[in-house]
Write a structure and sequence with these properties.
Layout (H helix, E strand, L loop, with lengths): L1 H9 L7 H7 L7 H18 L4 H11 L3 H4 L9 H16 L4 H16 L3 H23 L4 H14 L3 H13 L1
Helix pairs in contact: 3-4, 3-8, 4-7, 4-8, 6-7, 7-8, 8-9, 8-10
């Protein structure tokens, strides 16, 4: 049962980030696993520096896109938020169903907290998600992709990041490009 969970999670290495495919027409964009790993490192450092609950933030980062291992990565243009949430919730429940009850309930609670975006940690993780996207957009910009094609990613990040420290990092990312 735990092995099934690991196999499902490993599938994220094969799921491409759809936004990069749609906007930049990339054949081999970053995977969801690439994105989650980068976010986990950001979450670790930011939560340690800000004296947040680092363990909870890292778990939330690692779980936040896990459902995509079953349903794929979908952009807002492909699915409504309601439809995406329903698909993700069903997939997440399926993924964790055979885990031991103690961690299953803990992961479900963290997942729901992220989905509801009401706690301090979930708000931070949503912003780290945007920050990581901006960092990746900047990487693609440095690889020669046009600012025009990347502008919607930077704009979305600018709107979604409200934490002062994360805003500061976002500004550095944009300047770096």
């Amino acid at each position: 049962m735990i092995l099934d969970f690991f196999k499902t999670a490993a599938n994220l290495k094969k799921i491409s980030r759809q936004g990069w495919i749609d906007k930049l027409l990339l054949d081999t964009p970053e995977s969801v696993a690439d994105h989650s790993y980068s976010m986990a490192l950001m979450g670790m450092v930011i939560s340690d520096l800000g004296n947040y609950n680092s363990e909870k933030i890292i778990k939330m980062v690692l779980l936040h896109d896990l459902a995509e291992s079953k349903i794929g990565d979908h952009t807002p243009k492909q699915l409504s938020k309601e439809k995406k949430n329903k698909l993700e919730n069903n997939a997440f429940n399926e993924i964790i169903k055979n885990l031991p009850d103690l961690i299953k309930s803990q992961y479900l609670q963290i997942w729901q907290e992220y989905q509801e975006n009401t706690s301090l940690e979930s708000k931070l993780v949503h912003q780290i998600d945007k920050l990581e996207m901006a960092l990746q957009a900047n990487i693609y910009k440095q690889e020669g992709y046009s600012q025009e094609k990347l502008e919607s990613f930077f704009k979305s990040a600018k709107i979604g990041i409200t934490d002062p420290k994360l805003k500061e990092i976002f500004t550095e990312i944009v300047k770096d490009g």
